[in-house]
Amino acid sequence: MDTIVNRVANSPLKTINLEHFYPAHDCVVFDLKDFLFQGLLLKEKDFRASMKAYNWDELQGKTLLIICSTDAIIPVWAYSLIAKYATHKVADLYLGSKKEYLSAYYKKTIEELDLSAYQDQMVVIKGCSDKDVPPAAYAFLTARLVPIVKSIMYGEPCSTVPIYKRPKK
Questions:
Q1: Which of 84, 97, 114, 121 has its CA 20 to 30 A from that of 55?
Q2: Cβ atoms of residues 102 and 23 within 8 Å
């Protein structure tokens, strides 16, 4: 009887799964609209009272995403006031949507990665993900890998799309 050989497991391909770098903290959207007079106007006295009364403990260990879903003009000091109250509760604070936050988070994370183990290797950037990995993360990682790897593929080790191959010298 013939032996079944797992050629994928025996291949020299190194797989990078961006899902493994997904933020560990839940994201909570803090919409300034909810603290504005008629959803459009920030009244300083009312806003300060609302920030003081807000239950900041609910945000313990979470990522706070500050947005304003209406077309209101928000004074810069309002963001500082939110940060004052949230800073000792939240794990991270970001001014923008979850999509924007994830792109910035992955950019920073990928910039800090030690990629020396991938020097002159054939790399697969794993495609399918159960988490919301932004497309920008794939671009950031590819840009970091191109100068050091032999080749980059996208997908699964058994079914890949070629992205980059170092030219022969």
A1: 97
A2: yes
Tell me the angle at which helices 135-145 and 98-112 cross, rounded to the nearest 10 degrees: 20
pLDDT range class, residue 50, cuts 50, 70, 90 = very high
The interaxial angle of helices 76-86 and 44-53, nearest 10 deg, is 20
CA distance 131 to 134: 9
Residue with tokens 């260990």: 61
Q: Tell me if 69 sits within 8 A of 35, measured CB to CB.
A: no
Check pLDDT > 50 for residue 150: yes
Residue reference for tokens 């994830």: 102
Half-sphere exposure of 128 (CA within 13 A, CB side): 5
- Label residue 11 by pLDDT band (50, 70, 90): low
Neighbours of 77 (CB within 10 A): 11
Residue 51 has pLDDT above 60, yes or no: yes
- Domain locations in the chain? 7-23+101-165, 27-90
| Residue 63 CA from chain centroid, whole number | 11
**Helix, strand, or coil (residue 22):** coil
